Amino acid sequence: MALTREAASTPRVGGPSRRPHGKRPPRRTADARAGYAFLAPWLLGFIALTAGPMVASAYLSFTDYHPVRGGDWIGWDNYQRLFDDPRFLDSVEVTLLYAVVGTPIKLAAALGVAMLLNNRRGGQGTYRSAFYAPSLIGASVSIAIVWRAMFNDDGIVDEAGQLFGMSEGGWIGNPDLSLPMMILLAVWQFGAPMVIFLAGLKQIPNELYEAADVDGAGAWRKFTKITLPMLSPVLFFNLVLETIHSFQVFASAFIISGGRGGPANSTLFYTLYLYQRGFGQGQLGYAAAMAWLLVIVVGIITLIFFRTSRYWVFYSGEGR
Amino acid sequence: MKGTVASEGLGRRVRRRRSGRTVLFHVSVVALCVVMLYPGAWLLLSSFRPTNQILGETGLIPDHTTLDNFRTVFEGIGGISFWTFFMNSVYLGVGSVIGICLSCSVTAYGFSRIAFPGRQVFFAIMIGTLLLPFHVVIIPQFIMFNEMGWTDSFVPLLIGKFLAADAFFVFLMVQFMRTVPKELDESARLDGAGHPRIYWSIMLPLMRPVLATASIFAFIWSWNDFLAPLIYLRSPENYPLPLMLRQYADQTSTSDYGAQMAAATLALVPVILFFVLFQRYIVEGVSTQGLRG
């Protein structure tokens, strides 16, 4: 929550800054020196590991750089080739589907369970931990291996399906079911946004619901008129983070498909294809173009979220 | 229930209805928990099953239990012991924790406790890097570390942790420092302490809770990290556990499910242990700071 607000408004650090109005210049210069000294590690890291590489990768995206052969300037070729590359287009489709279908389901599950748990019936702490646990391990290789075994031919999901008369075989080898399987893995990790929703629900004053009860509002009206608006900052935070998160899924897709993104490119996530091109085939220029495209798209989506937020995100006690 | 007075009949009925609902609530939530935890339980129990009885086994309790899978895993892979992989993961995890606790707390102190020109701008930039996809920097970083001859070592995996590249932790610590009263460092300054002193003797000890939260997440994220080791490490003796698991998954994809399950279980043990021990820190960290798993 704090994060979204921070990024949305101009960040102010550390409250009112004490400024001696030029009365004691020595302390001010000393402070400036100390400030930069304290920031030195971060600044070095920012220049060497973030800003520099971003510029470098922009440059690389206009070359056909290869780790052994080196590279030449080829202008917009990489970008043009991307849009003629069927595998690239597949990867975009897979990733978008995953984000657009998976994120709302995950958030709906998170909100639903959070509302279920938000009462005084006890055991909340234990339940919260139990539901959260998958979020901690869900992106690990171990869980990818479990998923692969469960959804394989003759795996338990296949067996369970046969009990209900569905003999689809394993989901892994089926291009229509492999992406839903990945989405299930994402939804399984609804615990993290759920915990955040739960913290948000606790902030809603009970008087609002009591007043609504007096006015005879039903459960649905209370949900749409009180819960959702009061929760919208948290919802916004979860939505931004989960969406960005979903663009970056890698390890599970890599392990489950053996690094190939199959069958029929159905789990060829954007990052997986970027890895294949850049580090599998050494086409670092091409991969850099993909990376920059991802940054631009993520930037645009974030911008859209922030721009539209003023129409649907409601900050109570909003004074700014 | 039995002890209620007859005149409270209405209250009793309401209470009974409420307790019925409570039972229903607990039953449904527990059922949901079972579904959620099923994959984990299935993994754990499968690792004790004979390898040919794993795949289609929906039940949880094995007919035959065996330790063969674990024996296979402890024999190692390609002549390298399981403990080599395990210790690599430990080194990386501990290195991350040390790097992040030091560099991020120093940076956070600079941002929240010292007034200097450009501070707001730098802070905004740092927040901006939170949303930046990691992939845009990984290719030039790879080329750079390759040129420096640092690939196939832990340096590329740890250097960012020592240079406060994980903005989330800096942000977390800045948020924490805001709750520490300014008067504390003001009075220390009057006593003649400089910023390094205040940071080291006043701030750092106060930061224990936030350092604990950051350490737990730093360790678990490092433990689970797959992409960076995959890119930088070539020699199997440098592999951490996720890369070892990948080898099991690749080489023995159809034959030895048992070993895969046992290896996957062993790789999760420290994470689960951390979770059980530090649950409160972890879940609180998520609910108040929006940390991810």
Automatic annotation (TrEMBL), chain A:
Keywords: Cell membrane, Membrane, Transmembrane, Transmembrane helix, Transport. Residues 92-305 form the ABC transmembrane type-1 domain. It is found in: Cell membrane. One of its GO terms (cellular component) is plasma membrane. InterPro entries: ABC_transporter_permease, MetI-like, MetI-like_sf. Residues 18-27 have a biased composition (Basic residues). Its main location: membrane. It is a multi-pass membrane protein. The chain crosses the membrane at residues 34-60, 96-117, 129-150, 181-201, 231-256, 284-306. Pfam families: BPD_transp_1. GO terms for biological process: transmembrane transport. Residues 1-29 are annotated as: Disordered. CDD domains: TM_PBP2 (cd06261). Belongs to the binding-protein-dependent transport system permease family. This is Sugar ABC transporter permease. It comes from Streptomyces radicis.
From TrEMBL, chain B:
The chain crosses the membrane at residues 23-45, 90-109, 121-143, 155-177, 198-223, 257-278. Keywords: Cell membrane, Membrane, Transmembrane, Transmembrane helix, Transport. Pfam families: BPD_transp_1. It comes from the Bacteria. It is found in: Cell membrane. One of its GO terms (biological process) is transmembrane transport. It is a multi-pass membrane protein. Residues 86-278 form the ABC transmembrane type-1 domain. Coiled coil: none annotated. InterPro entries: MetI-like, MetI-like_sf. One of its GO terms (cellular component) is plasma membrane. PROSITE patterns: ABC_TM1. Belongs to the binding-protein-dependent transport system permease family. This is Carbohydrate ABC transporter permease. It comes from Streptomyces radicis.
